[in-house]
Amino acid sequence: MVASPGVAIGKEGPLLSSDIRFNLNVSRFLEEIKVHGNIKISITSPCDKCLVPVESVIEPEINLVLTPDRISEEEEDNVDHETYSGDEIDLSNYLREIILISIPVKILCAEECCGVCSICGKNLNIGSCSCKDEWIDPRLSALRDLKL
Ligand SMILES: [Zn+2]
Ligand SMILES: [Zn+2]
């Protein structure tokens, strides 16, 4: 099997920051092709809070049974089923799907990430800003502006 999936993740999604490493075993029994193993990729995506690029490694498991273009009778748990036709097997769509579902929804640079200041946009992991000191309770400012 030629492992050239050309996996491209959508433009707005995380970026692949390394080549995809495949560790796949392919076995064939009559018309049934089993693909088992895992793939390893690094992705770079912005921290959910402070937007700093974060690199993370994901290693989705592959457990796939390929059968020719027809519905297979028995379905096993935890095994994906795909069909193939002809001599060529194109796993690119399948692998793209696997990668997309294994990317965490929220990626944080650190669990205790402080995020950015909502007023000045400063990264609060680097240092604090002075916005909080100048922040005036809206109720107080209403009182202050009150003209008697
Ligand atoms: Zn962060
Ligand atoms: Zn600020």
What does this structure look like?
This protein is of the alpha+beta class and 148 residues long. The chain has two domains: 1-112, no CATH class; 114-148, no CATH class. The chain has three helices and six strands. Strands 1, 2, 3, 4, 5 and 6 form a six-stranded mixed beta sheet that branches. A hairpin with a 6-residue loop joins β3 (32-46) and β4. It is elongated and about 90 Å long. One zinc ion (ZN) binds next to loops. The site of one zinc ion has 6 residues, from loops.
Number of strands: 6
**Overall morphology:** elongated
Mean pLDDT: 80
Beta-strand residue percentage: 25-35%
- Number of helices in the DSSP assignment: 3
**Domains (count):** 2
Hetero groups in this structure are: zinc ion
The topology string of helices and strands comes to: EEEEEEHHH
Q: How would you characterize the largest beta sheet?
A: 6 strands, mixed
Low-pLDDT stretches: 1-8
Key phrases:
single chain, about 150 residues, alpha+beta, 2 domains, elongated, disordered N terminus, binds zinc ion
At a glance:
This protein is α+β, with helices and mostly antiparallel strands and about 150 residues long. Helices cover about 15% and strands about 30% of the residues. It is elongated and about 90 Å long.
Note the topology.
Elements lengths: L14 E2 L4 E9 L2 E15 L6 E6 L2 E8 L11 E5 L7 H11 L28 H4 L3 H8 L3
Parallel strand pairs: 5-6
Antiparallel strand pairs: 1-3, 2-3, 3-4, 3-5
The structure holds zinc ion (2 copies).
